[in-house]
3-phosphoshikimate 1-carboxyvinyltransferase (Billgrantia campisalis), 766 residues
Amino acid sequence: MRQALQAGCRVDEPRILIVGLGLIGGSLAAALREAGFGEGERAAEIIACDPDAEEIARGIEMGLIDRGGTVLTPLVEGATLIVLAVPVLAMESVMGELAESLASADVRVVITDVGSTKAAIRDCAHRVFGRLPANLVLGHPIAGSEKSGVAASNPRLYVNHKVILTPAAETDPAAVARVRALWAACGAEVLEMGVARHDQVLARTSHLPHLLAFSLVDTLARQDERLEIFRYAAGGFRDFTRIAGSDPVMWRDIFIANRDAVLASLDDFEAGVARLRQAVESGDGDALLATFDRASHARHYFDTLLNQTSYQAEYNMQQSANLRFRASPGGSVTGRIRVPGDKSISHRSIMLGALAEGVTEVKGFLEGEDSLATLQAFREMGVAIEGPHQGRVIVHGVGMRGLKAPAGPLYVGNAGTAMRLFAGLLAGQAFDTELTGDVSLTKRPMGRVADPLRLMGAEIDTAEGGRPPLKIKGGKALKGIAYNMPMASAQVKSCLLLAGLYAEGETRVREPAPTRDHTERMLEGFGYRVHRDGDTCWLAGGGSLTAAPIDVPSDISSATFFLVAAAITPGADLTLEHVGINPTRIGVINILKAMGADLELSNQAEVGGEPVADIRVRYTPLKGIDIDEAQVPLAIDEFPALFIAAANAEGITRLRGAEELRVKESDRLQAMADGLAKIGVEHSLYPDGIDIQGSGKTAGASYGGGHIDSLGDHRIAMAFAIAALRAGDEIVIDDCANVATSFPGFIDLARRVGLSLAQETEKEAS
Ligand code: S3P
């Protein structure tokens, strides 16, 4: 660690003065020492001022500071960076002393602070200096401990912690850069935000929890004068109240200084406690469960953020490391496996389960980021949902009119299906909603759902070009329409059918080609009549749904990567169990069979209105084909993998009529063409398709290796991972974290059948 810190030590300050040598100031000195500050040719010192002479003596003894004293003025001369680490309410008098001693001092001096509230300190600078000095950079390291005093100093206190700087327009950028360098040397991650935002965020995430911990311990201690209760207070009490041991003076100052923001967060908290009190009083188990479930999942999600294992939140996505797949050339494909549950059906099971009367039990639910985003969104709308636990989810339906307004925008991550289906469902609610998503989703077209919904009477705002976020006005009376879909899209069809549940009269959708019909099947399963005549389906609004059990089959779109893996690998013999073979999804089977693949279906059955089968694939050489355009919507998500099959087949495979591929999680035609070019597969790209020249080889390598950018698209990443089975060299694939949106556990399963696949994380910044 020491070396790592040293490597980052770019603190070019001849003398740093720390005012207030407690835990925070002392740890800063300790971290700087650890980073190598003051070593080497150029003399540099750390000095400190503290009203307590013993703290100074201890700091010198511990080797943290070179010297110090109890009076500020004589120490200021010659200091180039002054760090104010005193309690918030002591700031004004310290700044006053500084203002006098600095009048004649070096203009290069930079002042910063570590206070937990920023507006109060900024105001006090205004009072003292008559303005906000350009060399004052307000800051706040988000780190601490319930311990206090210099003796508790910890050189690693700031490692991987955030430091928030709140520079104003008048702050000198060079001064900001020097304060950044100071904290970076301590191993911290430095961020910037406005003063008001800082104070609101900290009131909620730090000040409120401290207030509650102080209050709980005090309340219990008063009730039990002999403190007998603490003898029995283990687990929960201990975990919840650790921070009540923090420095009382420091916290008194914080609450006085950040009064307004703390009061606002306390109001929200009191309202939440009042709701829980009411639920406890009236024995409302559903309300308790809904709150606890939401909180429990939010807490687990927070853990994954802390552990850097999730990328669902956009903030984290921007910060997160590049997850890279490394696929070694060759390998085998044998065995029996079951891939995770169907993404489309999983989304719909939560949506319809939530709107139904009664309890819906879901088995085989896909615990991928996309369907989990849907689940989380319904929790935020007040639906009690248990699980998921090993694919089992229990949804306590609230009925067609039982959803509640969420507290903020609903974030659906990478999930286009969630956003489009939600748009229809939310257009019929009494409350306003906003739908947001990650960077990829924010680029995808939503006009295709917003336009017909507006025809039904919905009021929806989109960003420019019909992109997310979607702002949906509640309380609009919807009327049924007859809609001729301009593109073959199950998402658009489903969106309109869901809006149609809330519309007056009939909602009819005509599709230019058959698209997946899971919404219609599941509605029927929940007792809601959906009619179909040829290319048109319709329903009448105003009905209700009755909960029904759902058994989610394995996702044929995920199975596809293994179907193709086996189809291109000499000697392969693989069985995929319990795969959904809904006729609107089997384009991949039809196309692979047309290419000559050896696929055998067995154990055909129907589960919960959806057909399933085991699929066995054995290697046999493939031939290039002209893909039947009618198969395109039936195989829409399978093309990235099918292009890899084409690259191994004999002759040319031609695809046309597939312009929809350009508006998926990435422009899949372009992304695949770029990747194929990298590994040396000849192809010609067209606006609505591609021609791929296959190698036709029945042994050895069909193409080379290379470094691929998946563009954060899960299916591009998995397609090139299986391509390595026939590559002459390693295939390295960047930006693979989103594989978890549809296929958690892909790497493990791929290894189990015989692929040689590893993953690694690379910090983008390095
Ligand atoms: C889906 C429909 C398809 C598909 C997507 C899931 C669904 O999108 O690509 O992965 O669950 O309805 P389109 O309907 O936009 O083609």
